[in-house]
Every structure is written in C-alpha cells, then in structure tokens.
Specification:
With 146 residues, the protein is mainly alpha-helical. It has one domain: Hemerythrin-like (Four Helix Bundle (Hemerythrin (Met), subunit A), Up-down Bundle). The longest helix has 38 residues. The two termini are 29 Å apart.
Length: 146
C-alpha cells in the first residue's frame, strides 16, 4: 500500500491548453508515485516516469518545432537537463540498488517537485499561450479554484 500523496495536482498548475494540462496532471501523478513508492518499487516507478517524460517532453518539442515557437531552444535544453539527471539516477538505481540509490531516487523526486512549478509558470505557460493562439485563435482563459 502506498503512502499518502506528497505531490498533488492543483489548479494553480493549469495553463489553459488542455492537452498540456492533462499531460501535466500525469506528470504530477508519476512524480508522486516515485516519491511514495517503497524501495522495491522505486525502479519501476522511475521507469514509469521516464516513459511519461519522454512522451511529454517529446510532444512539447514537436509543438515547438512545428509551430516555430521562439523560445524552443531554451525549453528543449531544460527538458534535456532534467532527463540527463533522471537517466543518471536510473543507472545508479538499476546498477546498485541500496540505500544510496534509493536516496538518490527520492531526492530526484523532490527536485522534480521543486522544478515543476517554475518550469510550468515560465516556459510552459508561454508555450500554452502560443499553442492556444494557433489552435483556438486566442490566448487561454484559466480559472483557478485554489
């Protein structure tokens, strides 16, 4: 049985582009699963996160590249830096599971919790507005309940 959620979705993460918001909900769920997993499940939860992040970041990269998003390089570089760290932790966890690797995986999860709000607020919100203009012809209107 897993622990109580550590990282939960909140409306303050909503950006107004529904496809992105749905993906971000999944991101939060995957990070929370990593943070609340027992030692025996950490590698599987990290692999779940990697599969999600590869698809998530890949989709955003495709949006940026196919629409000429001006800040694409910075955004793509930030995703690459995150994935570099994620793969380093995965290599450690898969190669020598134990207290040091378990601590690294949990530290990665906490770092993702710290990283996500700023990334969403600055880089993803600009991409969300950009995509809404292209798909819907205007900027998103976002109602946040909390």
């Amino acid at each position: 049985m897993s622990a109580a959620p550590v990282f939960t979705w909140t409306d303050r993460y909503k950006l107004g582009y529904e496809r992105m918001d749905d993906t971000h909900r999944d991101f939060v769920e995957k990070v929370d699963a990593l943070l609340t997993a027992g030692d025996d499940a950490l590698l599987a939860r990290l692999d779940d996160f990697i599969a999600h992040a590869d698809a998530h970041f890949g989709e955003e990269k495709e949006w940026m590249q196919t629409t000429g998003f001006p800040a694409a390089d910075c955004h793509i570089d930030e995703h690459a830096a995150v994935m570099k760290s994620v793969h380093e932790v995965r290599e450690l966890l898969a190669g020598s599971p134990g207290p040091r690797a378990f601590a690294a995986a949990r530290s990665l999860g906490r770092a993702l919790v710290d990283w996500f709000p700023g990334h969403a607020t600055y880089l993803d919100s600009a991409l969300s507005a950009w995509m809404c203009k292209r798909v819907y012809g205007g900027k998103p209107v976002v109602f946040q309940r909390d």
